[in-house]
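quick one, 298 residues, struct below
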Amino acid sequence: MSAADKAEIEAFQRDVIEPSMNALVILDFWAEWCGPCKQLTPVLEKVAKAYAGKGVVLAKVNVDESKFIASQFQIRSIPTVYALFQGRPVADLTQARTESQIGQILDQLLRQLPIHGADDQLHQDVAPLIEMGEQVLEAGEVERAVSIFTQLIDMAPEDPAVVAGLARALVAAGQPEEATAALDTLPADKAKDAGVQRARAAIALAAEAGPVGEIEALRAKVAAAPEDQEARYELAGALMASGDRDGAADVLLASIELDREWNDAAARKRLLTLFEATGLEDPWVAQQRRRLSAVLFG
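---
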């Protein structure tokens, strides 16, 4: 083995193998004369930057300057792109040429591999404070919850759990527009988080909720005309605004039982939004889903 080959191996060990022990390395084989390589490079760099906090790094091998490494990987054409973890290829990314395609593969790999990026560590650091904020919000101490989550935003501005918690606290404080603005600060890949969707559902419910002061009048209206679906729908909105999710669910289920197709299935859609705003993992939601199934299929 020549001295040049040894130098290549040492550089590859330092720049690719060692980082891959704890991170997912996107390994790009390229050359200066390769037109498709020049088109792909900005895409890879953008994806690597977006996924840096998740434990993804980009490494590049010029096949003209690192012929020994290229031969070891049996590179026949370029660009050739692999994902490496702990020194071994775990995926061939060569056919993925767009940010979306590459991102989908990386997301799948990150779910399967024991990789913990800076984002994960930061979330672990703030997790106890997030839990405290959630407990305070659940206890009805809205202003204090807003204060806690606002402070957490300074620590972890792109943590979906932090931003979603702040948004739901702002909704509870009667500030849905501010809640929407908070959620809109998240990058696109984090905006799909289940907690973020829960917060958006809470905003949607707030927009639909009726005046709390009209609850008794609406109850009387429904009692006088049980077939009045509009009155039931308004009553459910007022009950949601007052925080009475049990009462709202009862009214919506009664409406569905009376006429499930009324107003393009509006009662069922609102009930499902209430489920999402509550949190699909909540035992209350499981209980209400069973009631809904009984109404629909009983």
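The longest helix spans residues 118-138.
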